Every structure is written in structure tokens, then in C-alpha cells.
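Can't attach files on this board, so I'm pasting raw text. These are the components:
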Amino acid sequence: MVKIENLSVEYGGGNCALKDVSLEIKDGESVALLGANGAGKSTLLKTLAGLNKISSGFVEISGVRVERKNLRKIRSDIGFVFQNSDDQLFSLTVEEDVVFGLRNMGIDFQKSKEIAGETMERLNISHLANRSPSRLSEGEKKRAAIACILAMKPKILLFDEPTSQLDARSTRLLCELLKSLNGTKIIATHDLNVARSVCGKAAVLDNSRLVKFGDASEILSDEKLLFDCSLL
Amino acid sequence: MKDSAAGIASSMASMRELEIFSASDARFSSLGAPVKILASFVFILCVVSFGVYDLGVMLFFVFPAALWFVVKPPARIFFNRLLIVLPFVVFTGISNLIFDNSVVELPFGFQTRGGAVSFFTILCKAVLCVGAALFLVLTTPINAIAGGLRRFKLPCVLVLQTVLTLRYLEVMLDEARRMHCAYSLRAPNLSGIRISDWHKIVARLFLRSLDRAENIYSAMLCRGFCARKTMDFYKTKESFAEIAALLCFVFACVFLRAAGWIFKGAAW
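---
Top answer:
C-alpha cells for the assembled complex are below.
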């Protein structure tokens, strides 16, 4: 379970990126974090992964507080797919990138390669294994970045704008893939179609504050709310 | 403008090409990195031990020649890298050519100016040393080199810094390429970047690279990256065959070094 209680995050210069956010996400739920640009979606995801300093309040992942001493445990439970795949793929080949996380988990090289192979096959990117990530299309990069995370079998998956920079077909394929994934999923997006097709719940952020949290269908049919939060 | 953009792209491509080659060369990349590092170190040590008028250093060209046929490195990358260093070497050695007027006896009774000989030996030494380093890089992936350096108990911070610098260099080049592209599209009549714009571009480039480097580092942390642990994955234990091969190489180097002395003794 993910528990966020009165969370506030400030960046340097007193800029408040999140103000007093509280929500609870149960195991296995798929939650869309909706909000316009700068609403605080990415900040919330980064805070869950322990990449941001919490100013006040707290975050708990499976009962463990997100704080410095617990980061290793937290990060083994969480898989974070970044908005820009180029930030995530830094190795020479796609396979090497998938193996990177597994090796960090202490899995030996041969076993890591095996798991990487299986994951890439599952995502239909086996043919990209020996390709350089810089030579892939955006859709392929996104799949490779997801493979890097899925190979580590995290309990909670965080996606930051997974469909940005993707064309319609790639978006559809990615949505199908996201739907097929087990475990808790938190997807930051401003694409309402993605939220509608993948998530059962939705949280709307506006101006660094949580405006509403509830059933995705209910929230997505509230046009006034979406309009007020610059989502329509 | 287009040329500089192409230049950045080609630098990035050749960096990648070098890495791909080092990872793909099965015969030498399977050899333990510590053995290769030590062999290169012994080789360089032997080469630099020759005196300025000592033409015996030429005997050491046997090793790169043999390696060339076995490794078959991409000649363009190899010589391009060598050409970067050569002007500095020539600049260093040229004063010898001008100021050293001593007379040196060569084998078989020939005589020449000391400056010419010392210039030539400096050139040979530089080519051999840089060549040795290039062969090491061409046959060993950077992570394996890092593991090798850790095997020699080099501080983790130092090794990690080296590896990340290489990674971030690519990030910086990529950002430079994007910025250059954006600049040139809005300044089609300029043949380069205006001097008055340089400071803005460099500052922006620094900030953008820093930003991206931070994102990459965050992505690494999210996937359980821990400097000491990750660096130590690439540590290898040398097999008996590798140690034997290293000893043979060291013996060959010492033998050639001794041959250099004999060669010199016989000639003078």
C-alpha cells in the first residue's frame, strides 16, 4: 500500500511543488495522476521514489517510510519509468541496460541475461537487444525503458507521462501493455484517454494541491473539474 | 554550421563505435582487464625507459604490429585518435630538432645530428604509448577497465568518476548537438556561433547537461545503483592461463628491453 499523508515538497527558493497532499493507494490499484503541466505530478512520483526531499508530512510504501535510511528497500519495491527514456537508457545496448538493474540487485550475470531475455521477449523487443538505445524510435525506447523496470519485478510501478512523444499507434500499444501489467500502477499523465483506458482510480492535482481522488470514471466525467484544472 | 553539427555527431558516433568494438572483440575482451592493464603498464614502462638517443625503442613496434593483425582495430578510429596527440608530440620534439646539434653515431658507422635522433625517438615513444592505451581501450569495455582498476585497489570514487565522466561526456555532446541545431536553424546566414553568444551557449549547455546528468543519475539510483557494489561487479579473478600469459608478455618486454641495450652497446 502507498500512504501519503500531508505531504509538502519545496524546491530551492521556497517554490512549493506539492502542498498538503494526502492519499492512499491500495495494492493492485491503478491510479492516474492527472494534472496540467507544473501541477506537481512528476514531483509526487519522484518523492515516492525517494528522489525529492520531503518538507513536511510523510510517505509510506508497504509500511516503510520513504526516508534516507530506507531508500534501498523502497527502491527495490518501486519501478520508476521516467518521462524521457533517454534519461533511463544510458548503456551501450538495450540488453546491457536491462541487465544493469538486475546486477544491482545482486543477481549473477548469466541469470540476469536470462531474465533480461525473457522480459524483452514479453515486451516484443528481443530484436532490439543488441541495438544502441540512441538508435531506437521513441516507441521502442519507451518499451526498452519499461523492460528495464519490469525485469526487476517491482511491486509498484510509477510511470511519468508514459505516452508523451508517442504516436497514436504506439500510445495504443503502450496502453494495452500497461493494462496487462500486474501490481500497483501510478501513472502521471495529462492524457485523459490513457487514464480512462488503464486506470480504475484517478487523482487530480492542480497548483501543487490534490483537488480530488476517487473513481476514474467519476472524475473523468466531471467536465467542470477537468476544465478548472486545465485538463480540458 | 552544418559542419560543426556533423562534427559533434561524428564524435559521438566514434565514441560509440569504440565502445561497441571493445565489447565485440571476443578474443581479447574475454581476457581479464587487470591482466591487460598490467601488460599495458609494463609495456609503457619499458618504452619510456629508453634514452633519447636510443633507437632500440623501435624493437617495441613488434607488439603493436602483432596486435594489429590479431585485433584488427578500425584503422580510422585508431589513427584519428593518434593524430590528436601527434601535434603535441611534434611540438615537444621540434625544439630538439632545432637546438640539439650534437653528433650521434648510428649502427653500421652512420652519423647524424642528435636532435634528429631524439625527435624520432620521442615520436616513436609517443606513438607506442598512445597506441598501447588505444589497444587497451579497443579491447576492453570501460566497465571492465573500471573493474580492473578496482582490482588494483584504486579508490572507488576515482574509478567511478572516470566512468561517469565518459558517460556524461556523451550527454554533454548530445546536448551541444541539440543546442547547435536550434541555434543554426534560427541563424541560417551565420557561418558559426557569434562570439557574443558563446558565453550564453556555454552557460546554458552546462546547466542543461547538469540537469540531464542529474536525471540519469536519478534513474540509476532508482534501479539500485550503488557505486562500490556496481563497480565491484566488474572485478574479475585472473585464471592461471592469464597470469602465465602476462608473465610471458613481461618476459618478452624485458627481453626486448635488454636487446635494446645490447643493440646500443654493439652500435656504439
